[in-house]
Amino acid sequence: MTSPQATESTDVLLIGGGIMSATLGVFLKELEPQWDITLLERLDQVGAESSNVWNNAGTGHSALCELNYAPQAADGSVNPAKSLSINEQFQLSRQFWASLVSEGKLQDPRTFINPVPHMSLVFGDAHSDYLRRRYEALKPNKLFERMEYTEDRDRIAGWAPLTMHGRGAGRVAASWSPEGTDVDFGELTRQQVAHLQARGGEVRYGQQVVDLDRQSDGTWVAEVKNRLNAEGHRLIRAKFVFVGAGGGALPLLQKSGIREAKGYGGFPVSGLWLRNTDENVASQHNAKVYGQASVGAPPMSVPHLDTRYEHGRRALLFGPYGGFKPNFLKQGSFLDLPLSVRPHNLYPMTRAGLANLDLVKYLLSELAKTKGQRVEALQQFYPTADGSQWELVEAGQRVQVMKRDKEKGGVLQFGTELITAADGSIAGLLGASPGASTAVPIMLNLLAKSFPGRISGWEARLKELIPSYGVTLNDHPQLADEVMGRTAQVLGIN
């Protein structure tokens, strides 16, 4: 970029129209109503990539059923710390949504969140013993006090009938949490963006940021391409930039040149679902049932049989089946991966790749599967499933973080990474799960890092929006009952 002059100016530039940008945009409009906020989305609608209802599991990650958040140690013990942390984070998201509903800024909550119990289901002695130990580690904690555990087949059938119809002999164990939910993050994104627009925020579609350049006064100039027509590129100057472009965030952070983005790479993982929209079948299953991941599989590929809601209609989803495409976005380019390689991240990416050859082997095996083999995997959870009733659909594209590590040279990280410049003028988000479910705590972290001089002045409004802001609910049982009870009532998920 050669010109230091921008044709337009804004206080805040949000790049990408997913749940992260939507959440940050609403926060900033609530905290600083007079700020100009501009959101740019490269597609013709928001919430269409990873936030789309069929591009993610919609679990509302609260660690109630996701076994990878409470791994078993070599001595057989189970540490509940990560599960507790993730559940605490999801409680913040739920409180934020409930406040927006109460203030009339989001629609009927059933348009984006529905009560769906969360289950873990495992087979065999070793996995059953682990699940029991996990239950014993989590149950004493306030946030998991409603969790139940059983190996009684009739009881499991009462929770999720399809999982037990026609099941053969063998030990089966399950845990069940009634407070689980299904979240349509695409719809939630659209409603938050609509609120942002109603408060004066500007949203533009078909706009792709192709370069970012820091100016001498600390502002940023974004070069923007209009993907909908052939008009020339425009320049937008912003005091603060958030790169919430999903898989497209890494290339833009690299172009920004900030030191904090050095050494980061990305490994794209694609996926497929089996989907059943037959309401007669879907009506027989009301749960999100998670199992154990295959050896070498990334956490996002843990098999699960889910109830899903889209526009009030119930369907079933099973998967995901892993795959590989070099594009960083579902509607991206096959050149995304090779073009992301830089001198500063080549070594970390190489070291991380060599240390995760089992993942490569897993993805290759997944790519080679036929539909019949995928139906066989489904039948481990739903023994009498009729493969002809299930269609294969493409899931969202995920880009796992690869970064420097002092001891190993480079590591592959299964999580979400917030990158902020030292001066707070630009921030971006990399990674995947738990992602959308923890959008609110991630954005609270961003606000503290990027606006350290303002965060204390925002505290009163933040506590109105999130009553447990700054407090750990698990350590305050009475407050937890009050806050979680009110949130569940407002969202209709008692």
Tell me briefly what this model is.
The protein contains 14 helices and 20 strands. The protein is an alpha+beta fold.
Task: Provide an overview of this structure.
This protein has helices at about 20-30, 80-100, 125-140, 155-160, 185-200, 250-255, 280, 335-340, 345-355, 355-365, 370-380, 440-450, 455-465, 475-490; strands at about 10-15, 35-40, 115, 120-125, 150, 170-175, 180-185, 200-205, 205-215, 220-225, 235-245, 265-275, 290, 305-310, 315-325, 390-395, 400-405, 410-415, 415-420, 425-430. It is α+β, with helices and mostly antiparallel strands. Strand 14 (about 305-310) and strand 15 (about 315-325) form a beta hairpin. It has a single domain, classed as FAD/NAD(P)-binding domain, CATH 3.50.50. Helix 1 (about 20-30) packs parallel to helix 5, helix 1 crosses helix 12 and helix 2 (about 80-100) packs across helix 14. The protein is built from 14 helices and 20 strands. The strands form 3 sheets. Strands 4, 5, 6, 12, 13, 14, 15, 16, 17 and 18 form a 10-stranded mixed sheet that branches.
What features would you highlight for this structure?
single chain; 494 residues; alpha+beta; FAD/NAD(P)-binding domain; ten-stranded mixed beta sheet; eight-stranded mixed beta sheet; oxidoreductase; EC 1.1.5.4; (S)-2-hydroxyglutarate dehydrogenase activity
